[in-house]
Amino acid sequence: MHGLYLLGLLVSLTGMTVLDARFRLFFWRAPWRAAAVMAIGVVFFLVWDVLGVALGIFFIGPTRLLTGVLLAPDVPLEELFFLLLLCYTTMNLFGAVRPIVARAADRRSRS
Amino acid sequence: MNGSGVYALLAVPFLLVALVLAVVAAVVADRRARTREDAARRRRVTAVTGVVAGVALLVMTIVFNNVIVTLRIVAYDPARITGLRIGAFPVEDLAYAVGAVLLLPSLWVLLDRDHRAELTTRPRPEPEDPR
């Protein structure tokens, strides 16, 4: 049971990577730029998390699905992977949706 | 600090930063466009993309957060949230998804050092070199 959440996050991140590689959405379009976006995004949300914990808003629940490794008080290792997944999913979505919207806009302007 | 609005208030500075970056990215993208029409078209495409991707991300967040809150991976102090919930999780959690949609694509635009107008599917002539 321990580590199940981390496993789920890693499976999801693998899925995002496969989609990215197959459709050239994010890292497969501009790897260094993608890495910079991910790094800044993760730091941005980690600061948000740490402040949320410091203000006593949220904390680790009584679960047995976590590895128990902590990055900071009440910030589990898993949170880093969750934030990576959040950022990767967002950018893959944009990479996938934008060309579809652009094509639709082109079709409309030509017709 | 206490009160049921704390979690909602915490989101404000982060969403403001993300919003400012989105506005800056929009201005930068406009300047990179070759023509007025091109700029207007890109702006429309970006706005529609933001809404579509944003809704998709919110739906995914609603599913995901219900799972992790139900599994009690994360818990909240009831005194510091408004109490408005979507299923199991506090509505304030959605601010993360909103922040992601505003912040990350803006960074992607701002960190584009080639200054190439990107990702259009319309075949078009080679851009003229302004130098």
Topology:
The complex is a heterodimer of chains A (111) and B (131).
Chain A: H1 4-23, H2 31-54, E1 58-60, E2 70-72, E3 75-76, H3 77-110
Antiparallel strand pairs in A: 2-3
Chain B: H1 6-32, H2 36-70, E1 74-76, E2 85-86, E3 89-90, H3 94-110
Antiparallel strand pairs in B: 2-3
Helix pairs in contact in B: 1-2, 1-3, 2-3
Q: Ranges of chain B with pLDDT <50 over ≥5 residues? A: 117-122
Task: Indicate the mean pLDDT of chain B.
Answer: 90
| Total of helices of chain B | 3
> How many angstroms does the end-to-end distance of chain B come to?
56 Å
Number of domains of chain A: 1
Helices and strands of chain A, in order, run as: HHEEEH
List the total number of helices of chain A: 3
Number of strands of chain B: 3
Strand content of chain A: 5-15%
Explain the overall architecture.
Chain A has helices at residues 4-23, 31-54, 77-110; strands spanning 58-60, 70-72, 75-76. Chain A has 111 residues and is mostly helical. Chain A has one domain. In chain A, a hairpin with a 2-residue loop joins strand 2 (70-72) and strand 3. In chain A, helix 1 runs parallel beside helix 3 and helix 2 crosses helix 3 (77-110). Chain A is elongated and about 60 Å long. The model of chain A has no long low-confidence stretch (mean pLDDT 96). Chain B has 131 residues and is mainly α. In chain B, helix 1 runs antiparallel to helix 2 (36-70) and helix 1 (6-32) packs parallel to helix 3 (94-110). The model of chain B is unreliable at 117-122 (pLDDT under 50). The chains are: A mainly alpha (111), B mainly alpha (131). Chain A binds chain B through residues 5, 30, 33-34, 36-37, 40-41, 44-45, 47-48, 51-52, 55-63, 65-66, 78, 86-87, 89-91, 93-94, 97-99, 101-103, 105-106, 109, and chain B through 1, 6-7, 10-11, 14, 17, 41, 44-46, 48-50, 52-53, 56-57, 60, 68-69, 71-77, 80-81, 96-97, 99-101, 103-105, 107-108, 111-113, 119-122.
